[in-house]
Batch of 3 targets.
Target 1
Amino acid sequence: MARENFKLSALACIFGLFLVSCGNSEPEDTGLTNIDTTKEDELTEDMFESPDADYTLPSPLQVASIFKKSGLVYHSNITNPTANVSKYTEELKQMLNFGVYSADMAYCVLNEQSNEGRKYLTVITTLAEQIGMEAVFENEDLMNRFDANLENKDSIEILMIDIHVRTETYMDENDMHHLSAVQFAGAWTEGMYLGVYDYEKNKKKENLGAQITEQMSILRNIIKGLKDPKNAGMELGWLITDMENIQNTFDGFESVTAYYADENATELILTEADFKTLGDLVKSLRGKIINE
Amino acid sequence: MKKTFTIIATFCFVVLFAQTASNLTEFKENIETQKVEAKDALKPYRYDGSKVTYFNFKTYKQTKEVEVYLFNNTDYRFSFNGKSLPNDINVQIYDEDVTITNRILLKEFTGIQGKNVLVETTELNKTYETKKPSGGRLKRVFVSYAIPGIPGAENKQPTMKERGAMVLVMGYKI
């Protein structure tokens, strides 16, 4: 008897699925709505209700573009060597260095170092495979496209935007949005490192200094993103601690407190000592991220 | 009798579960299409990123806010796509977040449902300069979605009719 019941139920299931697959996808207002939405709610508890206060993060390409526009010049051998990729065996390091290498690739491409940029595309693809995002790079011969446009900076920038869009879409579709803060933490740290490095070589670049300061405004939201409960299993403690230390140190600078105390202040200008302190903290964090 | 009930209940459960999954898949697919549409509308500005804000219309008013950075005196274009809205909402752009009581309203518009609307930061900066001459250029803005209350909405268990999303795509001038 029980076996017969099971068979009939299974048949009902198959028939139900068949009806749905053939049917109109428009929702209908039936008396069964309440039952319908109970299941719907279970399925979508977090995915379809955004937080009341949300934020956007810029792309690594834009961060590099901001620094470039501010007078940052290219220095060879300061990016994270591609050979380091084999050191990143943990998921967290793979995620972070996906961001680091994305920033490095943008830095190379914007400074017309396409051959270097190509090497970074290779390691980004490797890391994407390791973190389960290989689909971002599938069905598209990015390397051939890159090679075909090696001398065309604009086309390579567009290719980088395509990669960014595909990464965003993949994360959205797979409810991985919480991980974007982890990747961006790597990209932000590397961008700041490259900015600080160039600024230390030429402190007359006031605009570059201003951009380093401006990039600090993102940090609070990166930390917020890292603290997303969905990231709880990633052992982000050390990263959050270091980033909070950078944030708190920055907030404690006299120049910063004075800026926020003055309602009419339009530009925040850090002192040389502030830059030194900030730069040291960024370099220290970057060293931990890339396993220096 | 018991057997018949079991079969009917199983059947209903399976149909409704599959229907829900199908509706949600379609909802997500539509949003991806709208993102592409909003991105295309950015040109000639260069794509920087996107933010999809999901919400459910309820019987009471709600507000969702998104912070957007404006770097290095760069001009930005925002492309808002409201084609996944079952009802219209009110979009407001401010210089500060909701906790600042005297924040400045830079732009406000309605009629976004079913449309793609563009906003540029040159316009926002002009308004900001007029309203706060000592303020300099905007370094970030807060996009606030005022979601009206809908009588009879299912607050705890929203149906597809109450599900909405605003797609915001940002681009910067090269």
Target 2
Amino acid sequence: MTQVFVRYRLGGLGLVMVAAVVVVAFLAPWLAPYDPYATITGSSADIMASPSRGHLLGQDDSGKDVLSSVIYGSRISLTVGFAASFIVVVLGATVGMLSGYAGGRVDMVLMRITDAFLVVPRLPLMLVVITVAGRGLANIILVIGLLSWTYMARVVRSQVLTVKERQFILRAKALGVSPARIMTRHILPQVVPVIFAEATLDVSYAILSEATLSFLGLGDPMLISWGSILNRAFLRGAVMREAWWYLIPPGVALAWTTLGLTFLGIALQEMINPRLKTHHLFDEGKTVAIKRLKTRTPILGEAPRF
Amino acid sequence: MALLDVRGLTVEYHTPAGDLRAVEDLSFSLEERETLGIVGESGCGKSTAMLALMRILPEEGRVVAGEIALEGADLLQLSPADMRTRRWRGISMVFQGAMNALNPVRTIESQIAEALRLHETVAGSEVKAEVGRLLDLVGIAPSRGPQYPHQYSGGMRQRAMIAMALACRPLVVIADEPTTALDVMIQAQILDLLQQLQQDMGLSIILVTHDLGVVAELSDRVLVMYGGRLAEYGDVDTVYNQALHPYTQRLLGAFPDIENPRAPLVSIPGCPPPLDALPPGCRFEPRCHLSLKACSREVPPLCELAAGHIVSCHMVKAHDR
């Protein structure tokens, strides 16, 4: 397994990038030099101070350490990312499997519902809903999750449609296995890889969505996330003060995380669908073997290896 | 009363392009410890009829008429839940091409165990032992149970499928082209195995195949199907030696003669009728060398000649008079 992954260098890189963020989020209390949630007493000289030895990424508009904020911000972003993604997986995979396996009217009804969700642009709808429902971490997670599950549903449904035609499903039916058990024990294992690949991309979209909502001032006011840091930076005139240490790090952190997740998602999708790769004759390893064959003197009785 | 009694089975596929009648008015019976061979060309409806027997037709398939009486009870009248309990215990099936019929990501052991656990034929703690016993029965070392289908050879997979089909001691076993995907040596092994299991366990088998040799080897009675209808039905000796239906005669004639290996191969010109353009009268009439005028107009009725020998042919009826 690991060999295959390393071959997909993009996937390996993605994995490392995401792992780095996860580690940082976990070890935040130990990695961050200061606690960004603690109250600060300082002087006016601390406001948007540029990087110094005590503050590697400088200070923000209230004198807090930017580095610590960014480190702690990873926790919120990842929490929202994975929690929303969890909702997406549970809801989307369930609907997709039911729809794909049941077919007929159930399929039609469920797909029309997902179509309704797909037609509406996600971000504007999220903005509206949050404004109405109120700010708060739980709300954000729910809103992102409930508006993103439809993509998963579609992808899972198409996988189920191909799997359910396979003969071992017919055999399971002939055995007398109930539809529920066929879905969980026979179809689900074939669908899991697809769920994984899609979920990875969903996590990245969730993180970006949260950052956007926070940036627009609709995030949880009590929590620090990368988006909220950027929100305050812009509102307090960091651009005018040319405080690059305040503006760039959260953006870089976001880009790093979503890029890592995207690399991971692409690699997973390629692993699942080998046909996405180019023809096998262009594969490095195989070409080397053929070259070697030409220079070897053939030994009688030995079968050629390609 | 026969163990399995099928009367007037008619199966259609309801597609957007129209209703296609794949099986029409099929009737046969199966006694205990008997082997019935169902022969016919590809597309003659034999597999469809078998799927209908177990009520596992694809979405578009519908049984539009008929009765399937297993031990007297009509399977077509059962609710889906009741039918699920009858499957595998009443009738089980050995599928063609075992590689496709086995779940590639689960061990052979767990798949056989699934049948046992589902129908609770064995106590939970006994399942593993029973699986080992079943594998041994079909000639697979029980220690190979935890392996996956791709680690088995073709013949072994088919034997694993047979073990699975016998797991719940079914009344009837349907073997749908059990040897088609295998080479001749393995074919012989599988057939021997089926024969031996039938003797030891008193099985009733329906053997579906297009290979007349296999039928001759294993069956007591044979049913020849063409175009979804019954052409000839009787015990093997009678049908093979005194075939009355022109199709059966041509089919048997197409078999290469071992005593005359240099003789040119004979085949039946033409091809089976497409389901959306079935001939209005006898299905075989377009390819028949003996057709009467009535053949293209009326569907020939089923005539019972000597006890248990049924033929569907106008020629035979005419002769009878």
Target 3
Amino acid sequence: MLQMEPEVADIIMHDELCLPDGLAFLRENLGRGGFDRAVIAACSNSPIEQSFKDKAVEVGLHPLHVEVANIREQCANIHGGVGQATEKAIRIVRGAVARVSRSSPSATRRVKVAKAALVIGGGIAGTQCALDIANAGFKVYLVEKQPSIGGTMAQLDKTFPTMDCSICIEGPRLSEAGRNRNITIIPNARVKSVEGRAGDFHVQVEVMASYVDPVKCNGCGACVDVCPVYQPNKYDVDLKPIKAIYSPFAQAVPLKYVINKDICIECGLCMKACGLAAIDLNDKPKSSELNVGAIVVATGAVPFDARRKPQYRYGEIDDVITNMEFERIICASGPTGGNMLKRNGEPSKRVAFIQCVGSRDEDGMEECSFYCCAGSMKEARLIVEHDPEAKVFIFYTELRAFGKGWEGLYTRCREDGIVFVRSRPSEVKLNPDTKRPVVVYEDTLSGVRSELEVDTVVLAVGIHPDEETRELARLLRIPVDETGFLEEAHAKMRPLESRVDGVFLAGTCHGPRDIVETVVEGTGAASLAINILSRDEIELPTVVAKVSEEKCTGCMRCEAACQYGAIFSQNGKAKVDDGICKGCGACASTCFQGAIDLEAWGREELLSQVLALVREE
Amino acid sequence: MTAPNIVTFLCWCSDSGADQAGVEGIEYPAGITPMRIPCSALLGTELIVKAFERGADGVIVSACKPSELRREAPSRVTEMRIEILRRLLEEVGIEPDRLQIAWISSQEGKKFADEVSEIARKIESLGPLRAKGVAQPV
């Protein structure tokens, strides 16, 4: 009956097309000419369809010109009566013939791969990622907004659960990145625009004026000695002063000074002191364009603003501090030389930690911030390590010690005499007589309400995405979740990929993580980037939406229908970013003008298949 | 009376679900005529109306259930569109039950067979669409 179809040139039979003999038979027959499309009536599409298509491509056919009609699993296997199964099989094959004979997909397109990667953010995720890509032999641009790479990890005193000195283990990685010939660190810089697709992105980077020529500056520090202006150092959470010409910390990479022009009085003393004439007070921002094959976003996150929890009186009571301030205070290079002091300079002997400030909380972030239980346990141990007579209390919601070695950390805290109180304190108030903070709480294990006066309260704040990450997401056309963290292509199966092909995610830019997981993700994202960079060309996806500019009226209903954000307006017409388009066709079916079609699944193709399926003989 | 012809659109995932029914050999009516498409969101009003017009007694859209947690779910577009279309069909005198969504993931062979059988039974009870003088055979 199928021979009656006008489109059918020939029917060739074989019993076992999927076996090696069958595939050879298929290749031979597909290549013998006399037709330019093929329908293979066989079994389940998924596993063998690709082998059939590979054979077709080998003999010069377009892969979308080969269609597998499934007449086994979806027909022969389930319908007992030979008559009705045969009749249905004919309809299925007829439908496939109708569609494939009308389909005229564009030729497959290839993109030449730019053999370099852009890593945005030089925290430990970005640094690890850059090193892994560079060590695989590819060029990496590591763009960092601060004067030095290092990120949050560089600010920590120790790391849990091993109690390693944080900068002592991160510092060598930073200098390794600084020395690596394949890595170009671009500090004081921001990404301004991104165009192109996986394999061939064009990225504009703006480099802020640093007023010090990084080529001439050798990091001697003569300028710092003479500078008369002081400012709070962000690296020390504003707890320690630094000069107007500065490098944020001793292990900074690159070790090049920068000037904060907002406070510089332009006295010119640094210029006189600099023997290398590296300082130029008229320095201007510069822009550079990078051509890269892959992008890794590793922009990190920022601490929750503790002022948003007014009941804890952060900013009002001197000795209510955040966990990041604590890290600087307990660090030997910090503002107090590592001594646990109160704001008035007296030693702090009683310290209370309040967990889940701005996390597991509807007003802050619903999610658990992941690192704070272990973080506070580490910090508690640091206090008793420095001063065995100190008394430490941890007010916790649930104590989560799920990482490798974290349970041991908890056990050691118990041995150290650290007191765990299951409570989410209702407020912190000030004892007007002693000027000490008082934690007001209910112990939820005993039901007893009580108050505890201490010298210092440490708020274990969670982390949040910052506005800049949101802006970067907009530039890259990747979505953010409700909190503002970047969203993965698939939460489970593609956890390091964004929905834009060739753009990968590492570290806390897509949710709270500890250092271990952040480093793992840096390496993971690197391997995904290397997957692209190691190829000379990549094939673009063919089944994507195509807009007819002639028919498009620019109403942009398609933009609203697209669940992936792949459509945007350009010169009054809809435009599809085929690096994002997943080929679902929601836009095509929404367009009133018939101006969008899915390649190989256009209106005409679909309709002819449907009509063939319902046609009565 | 001939068995109703029910065009059954299968999104990529549902297609595997239907395959699973075949692998397990779970029988369902032969009037279920499958057509694989990349995603259920591709189905426009025109295509479904044309299917009815040209002789389908029913249309099933077998799709992935939109995830509760993920924003990117093209089948949400499908769900809305089919709901509107069912009301439209009613306006023009076609029983809305002739158009149905089945949420089938790639493992759900038994669920696929059960749901399409149930829908087919319902459509069969409504009788052939052409007898109602609505559809125009080619």
